[in-house]
Automatic annotation (TrEMBL):
Signal peptide, first to last residue: none
Chain sites annotated for binding GTP 2: 186-193, 233-237, 298-301
Record flagged with keyword Transmembrane: no
Positions that bind GTP 1: 9-16, 56-60, 119-122
Pfam families named in the record: KH_dom-like (PF14714), MMR_HSR1 (PF01926)
Family, per entry: Belongs to the TRAFAC class TrmE-Era-EngA-EngB-Septin-like GTPase superfamily. EngA (Der) GTPase family.
Role this protein plays: GTPase that plays an essential role in the late steps of ribosome biogenesis.
Gene, per the UniProt record: der
BP GO annotations: ribosome biogenesis
Protein name: GTPase Der
Domain EngA-type G, first and last residues per copy: 3-167, 180-353
Assembly behavior: Associates with the 50S ribosomal subunit.
Length: 438
């Protein structure tokens, strides 16, 4: 599981600037997907080799008693409770405030690993100006400038070192593709536990022991029609013996972690509610993670023909970035339409794990260019020379050549279409990277 870092501090100290800086490299990947509305509070971050989930808690007033601040404080407390490490941000230019003291007291009592950061420290001589922050009793103060990107990397290193986690292994072992890791994601009440319990109650489904999983592990291994699956415990669900139960508190962090641990995510929507903002955010996390996805609209039994058409239109307009995913209309309660979902899950997994050889990719590239060459940009005409596979789940195709920075998004979409057709890729995102030599 990826570690979780929470950014805490009073309003205006620079938390969202820091958040943006930490999540920017991941942003670039999904920047060109139309219709994606980002959740500005939760993000996947990557710095060097290290990956983590970062939460921006907004403003925090632990002593708030009325109004909107109470709700904010509640959410911040939940975020802090779910975090592995807290980054407490203060303003190096403003100096210490009473609110900073309140927050520090709260964090000290909590006893979580905490890193104290003085933001807006660009151009400051260390020492004298930062000395007062030692008063907070949280140890060393790290000067950073979120706006200028100074000190952010060592801040991340320090925060994650506090957890003594192993670094990501560059040469990852060949993934075990015989077991499909499946997560069911969706907001509360869409029918996740109903669906999972319907599944697990099926006779065709056989539980088996997966090496490395313990009795109270958060996943359930099972086999269906000769295919092995590992069902990952999802946000808002808890396993109780053989049944899953909905728990009270929905957790974005658990949703993110489940998505990241899965190969395929089944995004569950509620036909009676249509596509809500929260659905769109969850869909955004899935897209960002690069996982394969199948969409199921549940409670199909409870809507009439007019409502059905409305839901279909909403999916097209609100989730256009998941166009590559198969769509199913089901009723978990009435056990309708469930079979085809399994077929799509298997297909999405197969697509996500697709192996593409360099000769085949390169031949395809040349055929595509012959069919339609990339446009000249001023003096430059991009030259696409060869391609190789740079990753799985999602498949990444790396194109090598010259002046590739001038390849348009439209042309990339054209290439994507050819690749999807050739390799029969359904249900997985596909990333195309351009590598210009010289
Ligand atoms: P938040 O309310 O804690 O999320 O704070 P924001 O990220 O919205 O930043 C508040 C203000 O501080 C904005 O005007 C930012 O441009 C500014 N700011 C953020 N980081 C820095 C920094 O490193 N240096 C300076 N000088 N200003 C910054
Ligand atoms: P979760 O919070 O996502 O796990 O949702 P639950 O499985 O607890 O379901 C929430 C509510 O929706 C419950 O009252 C279920 O009985 C109901 N529900 C689940 N599936 C269906 C369905 O296919 N049709 C209808 N009409 N109701 C359903």
């Amino acid at each position: 599981m990826k570690p979780v870092v929470a950014l805490v501090g009073r309003p205006n100290v620079g938390k969202s600037t820091l958040f943006n800086r930490m999540t920017k490299s991941r942003d670039a990947i999904v920047a060109d997907y139309a219709g994606l509305t980002r959740d500005r509070h939760y993000g996947n971050a990557r710095m060097g080799k290290r990956e983590f989930i970062v939460i921006d808690t907004g403003g925090f007033e632990p002593t708030a008693e009325t109004g909107i601040y109470v709700e904010m404080a509640k959410q911040t407390r939940q975020a802090v409770a779910e975090a592995d490490v807290v980054v407490f941000v203060v303003d190096a230019r403003d100096g210490l405030s009473a609110q900073d003291h309140d927050i520090a007291n709260y964090l000290r009592k909590l006893g979580k690993p905490t890193v104290l950061v003085a933001n807006k420290a660009e151009g400051m001589t260390e020492g004298t100006q930062l000395a007062e922050f030692y008063e907070l009793g949280l140890g060393e103060v790290l000067p950073v400038s979120a706006a200028h990107g100074q000190g952010v990397r060592s801040l991340v290193e320090q925060a994650l070192d506090a957890l003594s986690l192993p670094e990501l292994d560059e040469e990852e072992a060949e993934p075990d593709t015989s077991v499909i890791k499946l997560a069911v994601a969706g907001r509360p009440n869409v029918g996740k536990s109903t669906l999972i319990n319907t599944w697990l109650g099926e006779e065709r489904l056989i539980a088996f022991d997966l090496p490395g999983t313990t009795r109270d592990a958060i996943s359930v291994p099972f086999e269906r029609a000769g295919q092995k699956y590992e069902l990952i415990d999802t946000a808002g669900l808890r396993r109780k013996g053989r049944v899953f139960e909905a728990i009270e508190k929905f957790s974005v962090v658990k949703t993110l972690q489940a998505i990241e641990s899965a190969n395929v995510v089944l995004l569950l929507l509620d036909a009676t509610q249509g596509v809500t903002d929260q659905d769109a955010h969850i869909a955004g996390y899935i897209l960002e993670s690069g996982r394969a996805v199948v969409i199921a609209i549940n409670k199909w039994d409870a809507v009439d023909e007019y409502e059905r058409q409305q839901v279909q239109r909403q999916i097209e307009s609100r989730l256009p970035f998941l166009k590559f995913a198969a769509l199913h209309f089901i009723s978990a309660r009435k056990r309708q339409g469930l079979g085809p979902v399994w077929a799509s899950i298997a297909q999405a997994h197969q697509s996500a794990m697709c192996k593409m050889s360099t000769p085949v990719l390169t031949r395809l590239l040349h055929e595509a260019v012959q069919f339609q060459a990339p446009k000249r940009a001023g003096m430059f005409r991009p030259k696409l020379r060869y391609a190789h596979q740079g990753g799985m789940n999602p498949p990444v195709v790396v194109v090598h050549g010259n002046s590739l920075e001038h390849v348009t998004d439209a042309y990339k979409r054209f290439l994507e279409g050819r690749l999807r057709k050739e390799f029969n890729l359904i249900g997985t995102p596909l990333r195309i990277e351009m590598k210009t030599s010289s």
